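A further point concerns the way the authors explain their paired sequence and structure data. For illustration, here is how one protein appears when written out as sequence plus structure tokens:
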Amino acid sequence: MARNGTKKATFLAAMMTCRHVKDAALQSGVGLRTAWRWLRDEVFQAELRHAQDEALGQATRLTVGSMADAIECLQAVMADQFAPPSARVAAARCVLEHGLKCTELRDLVERVEALERRQDEIAKAAY
């Protein structure tokens, strides 16, 4: 049984790096039918989702950590009088587009949170 758990853990790790189930099965030494059976298992699905969430969280932290450097780079290109005009315009467009997206996302989050608070108030009043 312990060997099966080790195989599952190896397959789960392979699922995090392989593009296809077949490739993950081959990499981890698991039969394709077994791999698909495990993928239908709710516990395994939860473990895979947790691993994917952790990977996404790490990628998000790295991305957010690099944002200030990216903005400084774009600002430097925009201000560089010797940079080609197309590069300066592309940098400016990038700053504007992403600034607008951030603003839109922040506004949407605030609106959803307000709706959730209102829904909670309605639900509490109903009791």
